[in-house]
């Protein structure tokens, strides 16, 4: 009888889960002021936020302020959104279903998000090819990718089988989130 020959296995990916991600932060591996996100088990270093990016995020806060004041929604700016056990991005802007504790008991999840907005300058390809598919797989109903350099908003809606069924690019006119009809935004005012 011949000896059994073991074949070497191809390298495999080691995906981090959210628990390991937080333990790394606790022991100082991921230290402040470094901005990082966990996407599909991988840790991504995020670029510093420039002034145009920050200004657009503040404009979004202004547009949703009335809905927040009226208790229709909560907003979250650059805070964690727990999509699943391997995904915890920190979107630029999230419109959330209201909750009395303002999510003190746990980070909001995909089912809590009514709208996710990513403001993109240097991160446009990453937002489109890495983050957008994660949002779709996890059931976030609507994502806007704001392309700062083109002064356009890419609107992705209606998840079907882990993908967005509807996608459009808007450069002017009114824009309303599907699950927040109380707020309409004139696209040009985001870039003013």
Biggest β-sheet: strands ordered side by side in the sheet: 3-4-5-6-7-8
Approximate strand percentage: 25-35%
Helix content: 10-25%
- Which blocks of ≥5 consecutive residues have pLDDT under 50? none
Could you give a short account of the major beta sheet? 6 strands, mixed
Domain count: 1
- Distance, first to last CA: 79 Å
Instruction: From the alpha carbons, calculate the radius of gyration and give it in angstroms.
Output: 19 Å
- Kindly report the name of the CATH homologous superfamily: tt1808, chain A
By CATH, the architecture is named Alpha-Beta Complex
| Overall pLDDT metric | 94
Structure description:
With 192 residues, the chain is α+β, with helices and mostly antiparallel strands. It has one domain: tt1808, chain A (Alpha-Beta Complex). Helix content is 24%, strand content 30%. It contains four helices and ten strands; from the N terminus they run H-E-E-H-E-E-E-H-E-E-E-E-E-H. The protein has helices at residues 18-26, 51-69, 124-137, 187-190; strands at residues 36-39, 42-45, 74-76, 93-96, 113-120, 142-147, 152-160, 163-170, 174-177, 180-186. The strands form three sheets. It has a six-stranded mixed beta sheet with strand order 3-4-5-6-7-8, with helices on both faces. Strands 1-2 form a two-stranded antiparallel ribbon. The chain has a two-stranded antiparallel ribbon with strand order 9-10. The longest helix has 19 residues, at 51-69. The protein starts with 17 loop residues before the first helix and ends with a helix. The model has no long low-confidence stretch (mean pLDDT 94).
